[in-house]
User: Fold this.
Amino acid sequence: MRKRVFSGIQPTGNGHLHIGNLVGALRNWVAMQDDYECIYCVVDLHAMTVPYDPDTFRQARINTAKSLLAVGIDPARSLLYYQSQVPQHAELSWILSTITSIGQLERMTQYKEKQDKAGQNLGLLAYPVLMAADILLHKVHYVPVGDDQTQHLELTRDLVERFNSRFGEEFPLPERITPEIGARVMSLQDPTSKMSKSDPNPASYILLVDEPDVIRRKVRSAVTDSERYVAYDWEKKPGISNLLELMAFFTGRSIDDLVETYHDSGYAAFKDAVAEAIVEGLTPIRQTFKALDDDEVARVLQKGALDARQRAEQEMISVRKKVGLSAS
Ligand code: TYM
Assistant:
């Protein structure tokens, strides 16, 4: 039997994804389809933990789903669905919440970062428990994510150990899969903080659907340093190192090779080359995104949810038995 993979992505804001999502996570989502049984989810319930507008949200969910198809998630090979359409996620989340310590949730970095903006709603605190339920529901072995999800994965592994020792062996211990280069893509405007969709300055991120001229402008305005040579040094040159990692991803060339080529070229020429590599890499994605039909995408995800519900129900029968929620 092929090992299983699960990952999820939030339809935040207008649902468009950025290159951090692609480089840190989605490239592995796509690649893993060749060797594993993959299950991918637009985690709409998670996105409700910060303030949002229901009308924008409807389209945001579709935009995220379309982006996943555009980068190469193939519904003929992988299960793709909206989290909210498979109620077993919420059911398992409740069960896991009864073995989760509130202290551990309060220590989560993302919770601490987001609670100022979102207010201290219970959903935001419980967010990592629902994420653990996403992963455990399908009994998966691998979870391709960016570096920022490490703490959530650790909690998931803790819950596996706690559940299995309390109720009997049920869940395998899931492993985090992160790329060696690009696991944390940084903001173009502040290379010491993570590229994020919730950043109020759109120049800090590049969206998968950004037009070529927008991409060029954003890369040109990327914050670097006052030196003149291109080198890979996260401590002294975070801006340039970030651009090097992006270029390595989009060209397939090694960092060393790129440094050799651009060391003395000057920042302007280097940035132009980075921008062109990104434009070239994103053009087919943008074109596919635009060609996809909303209704057709909705049908694909509906079918995914139907399959996922059946599978999830099978898994939950055994979980319910273990925790004493069934007759036998
Ligand atoms: P989300 O929606 O914030 O991001 C989706 C994926 O993109 C990665 N990512 C990045 N990688 C590198 N550099 C960046 N700047 C960057 N920004 C985002 C994230 O690490 C993630 O892999 N909690 C998750 C969603 C989730 C999930 C799950 C993931 C819910 N349930 C179960 C895996 C398994 C999140 O907020 O991702």
Remarks:
- The chain has a mean pLDDT of 97.
